[in-house]
Amino acid sequence: MLKGRLGLETARQPHADRHGLVWLDRGALTVEDGCLRFVAAGSETVEAGDYRIPHQALSMVLLGPGSTVSHDALRILARHNTALAAIGEGGVRFYTAQPLLPDTSALARRQATAWADAKGGRMKVARRMYALRLGEVLPHRDIAVLRGIEGARVKEIYRQAAERHGIRWQGRRYDRQNPNAADIPNQALNHAASAVEGAAAIAVAATATIPQLGFIHEDSGQSFVLDVADLFRDTITVPCAFKAAKAHEKRPTDPIERLARRTVAERLRRDGVIPAMIDRIKTLFEEETP
């Protein structure tokens, strides 16, 4: 039904007036008396109990491991245009989500318009991304030059992080065909990066932007997701990776993948990283770009 054409658009609360995300895990999401209900078994993030979920006031429900969802719950969420995403522990994996139908296509249209303008709009957004990553607006307009500047800076960030955590660091090296052949710090970086990419995928889904249309990354079907994840490499990915590598030195029997994933998950929850990613995406496509 095209509710807007029937004059019923006010039946849904606009997304601008909603409260963002709610995290649920280890429980059952169902409907009772027309209301969304979540019965939680209990976890680190959700205490055991019986909850009523204000789905009309939410943009997205994030459903973590150990959870089930009923057909009625999916129907209610779709009716009120509230998205549901199946995620990994702490938001470090993004498995699937029903499409979020936003109130307006403005954000996606601005993304597509900027991306299609390879010489103008696309470079403006890429430069804004580099400004966010490097802490300053660089005068360069050649993407290769910007990548080179950032590459040198990232090498120094790796070195400083290794020194801060007392980790022996021999440089960024890994074989894409055999990632487990890398040393522990490099494996930790791989796993932490994957976890942050999962969070970025949730943010992209929540904003209904287009994952294929990246501005720095180009070939991947998740190019924009990778762009967003890289905006948090210095503050989340690298610190979490070296913290996990240090924890592995103390507990060598614990798999480095698990340590890295849990370390990132803790930061995502503690620092509200996914909401910050959502805000960052909106900032990228403001009318005025450098």
TrEMBL record:
CRISPR (clustered regularly interspaced short palindromic repeat), is an adaptive immune system that provides protection against mobile genetic elements (viruses, transposable elements and conjugative plasmids). CRISPR clusters contain spacers, sequences complementary to antecedent mobile elements, and target invading nucleic acids. CRISPR clusters are transcribed and processed into CRISPR RNA (crRNA). Acts as a dsDNA endonuclease. Involved in the integration of spacer DNA into the CRISPR cassette. It is an enzyme of class 3 (hydrolase). Keywords: Antiviral defense, DNA-binding, Endonuclease, Hydrolase, Magnesium, Manganese, Metal-binding, Nuclease. GO terms for molecular function: DNA binding; DNA endonuclease activity; hydrolase activity; metal ion binding. It holds the Pfam family Cas_Cas1. This is CRISPR-associated endonuclease Cas1. Its cofactor is Mg(2+); Mn(2+). Its EC number is 3.1.-.-. InterPro entries: Cas1 (IPR050646), CRISPR-assoc_Cas1 (IPR002729), CRISPR-assoc_Cas1_C (IPR042206), CRISPR-assoc_Cas1_ECOLI (IPR019851), CRISPR-assoc_Cas1_N (IPR042211). Mn(2+) binds at residues 150, 217, 230. Belongs to the CRISPR-associated endonuclease Cas1 family. One of its GO terms (biological process) is defense response to virus.
